[in-house]
Amino acid sequence: MKKISSLEYNTLIWFIIKACYTELTITAILVRTRQDTYISTIIGSIIGLIPFAIYEVLKNKYPDDNFITLNKKLFKRGYLLNIILLIGSLIALICTFWILVHFTNSLFLYKTSSWIISFTLMVPIMYASSKGINVISKVSLILFYMSVFIIFIIMTGTFNEIDINNIRPVFNTDIGNIVHSSLIFTAFNILKVFFLGLIPKNMVNKYSSKMNFLTYFIVCISMIDLTISTICIFGIDLSTLYEFPAFQILKRVNILGVIDRAESILSVEGIFSIFTEMTIITCFASEIVKETFKIKEKTDKYIIVFICLITLVISNLIFKNQEFGETFFTGPLLYVIYTVCLLIPCITFIKSFRYSKLVDHKDCYSAYK
What span, in angstroms and rounded, lies between the C-alpha atoms of 15 and 271? Predict the structure, then answer.
């Protein structure tokens, strides 16, 4: 793997955190917390700082290892943890792909078979994944500049539509629903940064934890702003009525009568995010297979093709209706994500300090001899 720049790494953080927010998260938490949805997003962002900091500590402590090789180094049976990570990453990949297919099918190609849409979307994901992190990061950087331009257009074109009175009253929702929604936000939009553990610190030029945290805060603020804008523009009743309320904002974009009803073009910003996230998770799963089963480097592309085909087939066979998908995402999937992206990293984090003490003790003993 060739080194990538710090800016490219930051854009990967940007897209992974933003992925699925417009297509899933905001809808899931709006129905639970209504006007207090932005409060859940703020709390979720604060909670997310804990796992994000754990990922940063592990990267800085073991700069030559990714999270997969780190498990093998710290645990005698680290391959068992990696197999759990493989299963979890495949589940995350399947669910994320279904979100992308469902979003595309519902808004753009509602008369087209989901199998055809799936195949069409999977081909570029498969191709980009096979090219590796270097190509993905460069594509991510290009898409980032496009995304910033799109976000600027959206903010400029909808500013006059905002009515701040629509977010009142504040704290009008049960605290249990606010906490649950915060955990949903953290799971879907923060914890999946874990998959960037595929990239060792030493493979990023001028790696900066400060820049990573700054990127984290900026992208979280952008999602809080999107949440507030959605409620302020539509009101809570209309916001909960729409399946993709954040997408409906794009229909309101109007800049001096020149840019009007360009929602199909502007919506690609969300698709960019899911595309980037899926390529990273695919590469993560591929790396686990290679490390666990000692597969040669030349077989990378075959592993990626196999993973992508499994994702395509299973997502279409399991998620045959929308109700099952929504129930699974806000229930069992949360446990999977928290296990893979929080519990296992926490175990690795604790073990890393014990490992360091053991190494230091051995070094002292060798020096004494």
Answer: 10
**CA 131, 137, 141: angle at the middle one, nearest 5?**
135
Which tens digit of pLDDT belongs to each residue from 58-84? 999 999 999 999 998 898 888 899 999
Which residues does 28 contact at the CB level (< 8 Å), separation at least 6? 181, 184, 188, 326, 329, 330
- Cβ atoms of residues 257 and 51 within 8 Å: no
Structural contact between residues 198 and 66, judged by C-beta atoms closer than 8 angstroms:
yes
C-alpha dist (Å) from residue 54 to 50, 85, 352, 355: 6, 17, 11, 16
Residues forming beta bridges with residue 255, ordered by sequence position? 259
* pLDDT tens-digit readout, 95-154: 999 989 988 888 788 888 889 999 999 999 999 999 889 999 999 999 888 888 877 877
pTM of the model: 0.89
Would you say residue 167 has pLDDT above 70?
A: yes
Q: Distance of alpha carbon 83 from its chain centroid, rounded? A: 21
Give me the torsion for CA of 336, 342, 348, 352, rounded to 10°: 180
d(CA 36, CA 167): 8
Q: Please list, residue by residue across 122-141, b when 16 or more beta carbons sit within 10 angstroms of its beta carbon and e when fewer do.
A: beebbebbbbbbebbbebbb
Q: Which two tokens stand for residue 148?
A: 């910033």
C-alpha to C-alpha distance for 43 and 260, rounded to whole angstroms:
35
Parallel/antiparallel/unpaired status of strands 4-5 and 259-260: unpaired
What pLDDT, on the 0 to 100 scale, is given for residue 314? 92
